[in-house]
Amino acid sequence: MKLGITRRTALLWWGAISFAASTPQAPGTTTRRAEINLDGRTISIDYTALSLSGRRFGRTIAPFGKVWAFGPGTPPQLTVNAYTLTELFELLPGTYSLYVIPYPDTWLLLPNQGKKGDHYHQAKDVGRLRLPVKPLPSAGDQLRFALTCLAANIARLDISFAGASVSTTLKVMQVVLTNYRRLANRSGR
Questions:
Q1: Which of 66, 68, 34, 26 is nearest to 50 (CA)?
Q2: How far apart are CA 34 and CA 137, in angstroms?
Q3: What pLDDT is attached to residue 35?
Q4: Three-state DSSP class for 142?
Q5: So where are the chain's domains?
Q6: Which residue stretches of 27-132 are H helix?
Q7: What pLDDT is attached to residue 55?
Q8: Contact residues for 135 (Cβ-Cβ < 8 A; gap 6+)
Q9: DSSP annotation of 61
Q10: 113 CB contacts (<8 Å, ≥6 apart)?
Q11: By the 8 A CB rule, do 87 and 168 touch?
Q12: What tens digit of pLDDT does each residue of 108-149 get?
């Protein structure tokens, strides 16, 4: 028995594959990347640009006082390729999941050592940054991460959503290898 693919079958398969490849991941979302290069040291954030789509921030989306992954799926992934200081703690080179606990006047930013796709575990938090909320003049309804260069080795991270914005600084450092090994041993990496 000879099995052959007719032209019609091939076109149907090609159309199905093309449709699947062009189908968006979820309504009101797109995948984005914020990235900055500071003298060869890179900071990047891969995230899903969630849209409010008529929902209320703090109520139906990102309930105040609860851990939120900046959307319904995988949390944003912060990647640093150099020893990095935040306002309160240090990040070793690697990838971190970003979570937040929003409140009306502050957000707690939670870089977490959990792997992509993991559920949130507080024990894996690297630290917690309390960031004051600043109202935006125009209430943008799409989640946005932005990295801006402030100096040769300092970037500002801005996160905006639902008419509010928070920001913090990230300082990448050159460390000697012995310091890196000491820090890596301390963090269990």
A1: 26
A2: 22
A3: 98
A4: strand
A5: 28-187
A6: none
A7: 86
A8: 163, 164, 165
A9: B
A10: 94, 96, 97, 124, 125, 126
A11: yes
A12: 999 999 887 778 999 999 999 999 999 988 767 889 999 999
